[in-house]
Amino acid sequence: EHFLQKGIPYQISKTENIADEEHIINMLVLIEYLLSPGEERLLARILYMPYFGFSSLDIFKIINHSQKRKLPIYSTLSNKTQLQEAEVENIDVFTNFLEKLSTWYRDVKAMHPGQFFPILINESGILEYLAKQDDNYLQLNNFHVLYDFLKRHLRSDDSFDFQRLLEKVEL
Question: What stretches in the chain show pLDDT beneath 50?
């Protein structure tokens, strides 16, 4: 109010914890799953992320089918017969996703985190998704901040890895 009375322009902004931002959380969940691929809850959460082009109905059918058959979700996803039995409409989208997931699983183990992080952002579709959103500057900048955070820790500690990143941001 004081600034208004004096005719001084001002702007109020809040500082956000980037680890509270939806797309950052999604990226961290994806990394967490790649480190622990048996975690069904993480895979289910990943399937509902908007980056992969899955229909919500197909996801529901897969999860429902898996529960009825007492199968892990991954087993249903990796078996075309199971997907057909679940009456999934777009089986190819899930097959392509599993191919990417398999490659990312290999790469998260084999590559340096500083090299793998931008690859995952690109190949997962997160970057493309955000580029299509209005007012995406802050969201894109949050990825820049997270990547800088990762690189800073990698420079100061050779043993820093994605597991330690997840611990630092307290996902």
Answer: 2-3, 6, 10-15
Q: What is the pTM of this model?
A: 0.86
Residues 149 and 141 sit within 8 Å (Cβ to Cβ): no
Residue 66's nearest CA partner among 51, 50, 52, 83 is 83
Residues 109 and 103: beta-carbon distance below 8 Å: no
Task: Using CB atoms within 10 Å of the CB of residue 62, give its burial: 0 to 12 exposed, 13 to 18 middle, 19+ buried.
Answer: buried
Quick: pLDDT tens for 7-32: 555 444 444 577 789 999 999 999 99
Residue 151 near residue 114 (C-beta atoms within 8 A): yes
Report CA dihedral (61, 67, 70, 76) to the nearest 10 degrees.
Answer: 30
